[in-house]
Amino acid sequence: MADLTAFQSWITTCATAIADRADDLTELDRAIGDADHGSNMKRGMSACAQLAEQEDFSSIDAYLKKVGMTLVSTVGGASGPLYGTFFLRLAGPLAASEQVGAHEFGQALRAGVEGIVARGKAELGDKTMYDALSPALDAFEEAAGAGSDLADALQAAARAAAEGRDATEPMVARKGRASYLGERSVGHQDPGATSATLLVEAAAQTLT
Ligand code: ADP
Ligand code: MG
Q1: I want to staple 112 with a disulfide (CB 3.0 to 4.6 A). Which of 14, 23, 90, 192 is the partner?
Q2: What does the pLDDT average to over 158-168?
Q3: If you take atom 4 of ligand 1, which residue's CA is the nearest one?
Q4: Hey, which CATH number is domain 4-206, 3.30.1490.190, 1.25.40.340, 2.40.50.100, 3.90.800.10?
């Protein structure tokens, strides 16, 4: 079960991971985009990591909504509204919860990922963050459905996200800036799938 403190530690852990990998994310985006994904995400996640110091949050869902709004207003690019929507939707199913277990988090994760699809219209194989998040969601639901607790289901989700991220390399981009490159996007790992994997891996480290 994860409480508000665990969710706050998810965000700060993710912010550190993104800051550590910001140059890598930017290099990936230089190859098939405009070389701003690392700086975009670092700016947004570091603003999110400071939220808990600036404000006392009364609930997990209020906190996650603020994270989502902060990402929308600070990240910019395509990924800001997409990650912002993810956290805003993630909050919905957790509205009444002080402690979140595997079943509830699965509902929240599904809402969050569906929010990204509703907003960005990505399909599997388009070479986006969805190619990491969709297998992560599937793996989470399968593990939780088989009786895994939140921590174990998130471990499964993190492994699946990493596999999905790696699988973006040979894909032709069909969404966002990278799609302008067409076939020339082949051979490069998608930056958004890379940051999305860091997000899921941070969840596996903290939401226990
Ligand atoms: P921008 O492309 O505006 O510079 P970023 O560089 O911050 O924005 O983010 C690029 C990432 O956003 C891509 O690697 C991809 O994963 C993701 N992305 C772009 N468009 C979409 C979309 N329609 N749906 C899902 N993800 C998308
Ligand atoms: Mg970019």
Answers
A1: 90
A2: 98
A3: 77
A4: 1.25.40.340
